[in-house]
Amino acid sequence: MVTDKLIGNALSLESELRWFAAVLEARLKLYLKQDAPVESIYDLTPPDFGDEQSVYSEFVQYYNLSFAERILLLLALVPHIKPELLDPLFASNGQTNRGWTEFGGVQGKNHGGFVPTGETFIFMMAGGSLKDRFVLTDIFGAEHVFAKHQILQLEHAPDGEPFLSGTIQISRDILDYLTVGEVHRPVMSSRFPAKRITTEREWGDLVVDEKTFQQIEEIKTWLDYGHALLYDWGMSKKLRKGYRCLFYGPPGTGKTMTACLLGKDTNRDVYRIDLSLVVSKYIGETEKNLSNIFNQAENKNWILFFDEADALFGKRTSVSDAHDRYANQEVSYLLQRIEDYNGLVLLASNQKDNMDEAFTRRFDNIINFSLPRPDQRLKIWEQAFAEKSTLAGDISLKEIAKGYELSGGAIMNAVGYASLMTLKKNSHEISKSDLIAGVRKEYTKEGRTV
Question: Domains of the chain (ranges plus CATH)?
Answer without folding.
Answer: 4-180 (no CATH), 195-368 (3.40.50.300), 374-445 (1.10.8.60)
